[in-house]
Design brief:
Keywords: Membrane, Transmembrane, Transmembrane helix. The protein has five helices and no strands. With 217 residues, the chain is an all-alpha fold. The chain has one domain. Helix 2 runs antiparallel to helix 3, helix 2 packs antiparallel against helix 5 and helix 4 packs antiparallel against helix 5. It is elongated, with a radius of gyration of 26 Å.
Length: 217
């Protein structure tokens, strides 16, 4: 029998992970905004000094200069607004889905381990002492999380991530059909799905890193 996990003990760990990522996300954004303010101030100060120096030397047309500055300021303001909207969108996606994304990442990690152990056991079928414990509930958990993402969370999640989850689910259904109806060997099915689990897991971690503002160092 696989060891039973006390979810009451896991709850504080999960909540702590969510809180840690949220705080790191906040500090990351504050640090990034401070850097932008400093660089913007230095850039503006430098441009002003250069303009005054060149104006004293070449005596620019001030009306034309003012129009150019206004046009440049409009472009910069539009770019800042667009960048701000993109960051707000990422913040909303992360704040809305961070708990579920962490749970999906954990479920994928568990199913990868379970699949690897099952493949090992197939190869060691003639030597029971070499067999590893397999958490068979991991397969059901990850299937439930994926179906939940596609049905309930679909409108609230990023389109690219939903597309990746959908591809994984379709591949899983197709492999299950081939095992049950077309004679696909269990070993080959596990090997195919292990690759699929790892691809989705990698995409999920990359997405979480990007949308939360936390970069691996």
């Amino acid at each position: 029998m696989p060891a039973q996990i006390d979810h009451r003990e896991c709850a504080p760990i999960k909540q702590g992970a969510v809180a840690w990522l949220a705080m790191k996300h906040l500090f990351n954004r504050l640090e990034f905004n401070l850097i932008k303010i400093v660089l913007g101030t230095l850039f503006g100060f430098t441009i002003t000094i250069w303009y005054v120096a060149l104006d004293l030397k070449f005596n620019f047309n001030h009306s034309l200069s003012v129009n150019i500055v206004i046009a440049m300021a409009t472009i910069v303001a539009a770019a800042i607004h667009f960048d701000s909207q993109q960051k707000l969108r990422k913040d909303r996606i992360w704040d809305t889905n961070k708990t579920f994304l962490l749970e999906l990442a954990q479920a994928l990690s568990d199913v990868i381990k379970a699949t690897e152990n099952e493949i090992h056991n197939i190869y060691c079928s003639n030597d029971p002492e070499e067999e590893l414990e397999v958490d068979y509930k991991a397969f059901k958990r990850v299937k439930g999380k994926i179906e939940y993402a596609l049905t309930v969370c679909h409108p609230l999640m990023d389109k690219s991530l939903i597309a990746a989850i959908k591809r994984h689910n379709e591949k899983d259904d197709r492999i299950t059909h081939e095992v049950n109806n077309e004679g696909l060997e269990n070993l080959e099915a596990y090997q195919i799905m292990l690759s699929e689990h790892k691809v989705l897991y990698s995409q999920l971690l990359k997405f979480m890193s990007e949308v939360s503002g936390v970069k691996n160092t």
